[in-house]
Amino acid sequence: MIKNILVPIDFSDYSKNALKYAVEFAKTFTAKLYLIYVVEPMIYPADFSMGQIAIPSTDIDIQSRAEEEFKKLTNEIDKSLQVETIIKTGKPFVEINETALEKDIDLIIIATHGHTGVEHLLFGSTAEKVVRKAPCPVLTLREPIKGFVYKNE
């Protein structure tokens, strides 16, 4: 039985489409949706003797913008569904998987951006890392999304 679904959001079109898919999935199973956005701290090397330092002021701006974006997204979701938004700071794949444990998530639905080649080597894939370390099943979605039909509004 799927009761809790976690949907990582980065506010890209990919993740918004994955959310539309997840909404239909949640309706089918009468599941609660958890939407998570992870602010990755900006780290700059100060010099070789001090190591790396984080710049927290921009993180606050990003967090408040994320809260605004979440309000817009949740207003578009069917009011019959339970939705909880979560904003965390850290490495996205770590925070996503930790949240899955904390909230007793039954399924993670995550969009892939489809990076290939050098781009994939340099940046890696958050979705791939989530799949490798997740404490529950993960459904990865790639454009174009097939399967459940969602309203493209």
Describe the protein's topology.
Layout: E1 4-8, H1 13-29, E2 32-39, E3 43-47, E4 51-54, H2 56-75, E5 83-89, H3 92-102, E6 107-111, H4 117-123, H5 126-133, E7 138-141
Helix pairs in contact: 3-5
Describe the model.
It is a single chain. This protein is of the alpha/beta class and 153 residues long. It has a single domain, classed as Rossmann fold, CATH 3.40.50.620. It has helices spanning 13-29, 56-75, 92-102, 117-123, 126-133; strands at residues 4-8, 32-39, 43-47, 51-54, 83-89, 107-111, 138-141. Helix 1 links the parallel strand 1 (4-8) and strand 2.
N-to-C CA distance = 29 Å
Anisotropy-based shape: globular
Strand/helix succession: EHEEEHEHEHHE
Q: What is the structural class? A: alpha/beta
Give the domain tally.
1
The Cα radius of gyration reads 16 Å
Relevant CATH superfamily: HUPs
CATH topology: Rossmann fold
| Percent range of helical residues | 40-55%
Main location: cytoplasm
Protein name: Universal stress protein
Family: Belongs to the universal stress protein A family.
Subcellular location: Cytoplasm
Concise summary:
It comes from Stygiobacter electus. The chain has 5 helices and 7 strands.
What attributes characterize this protein structure?
153 residues; alpha/beta; Rossmann fold; five-stranded parallel β-sheet; two-stranded antiparallel ribbon; 25% strand; globular; Rossmann-like_a/b/a_fold; UspA; Universal_stress_UspA; Universal stress protein; cytoplasm
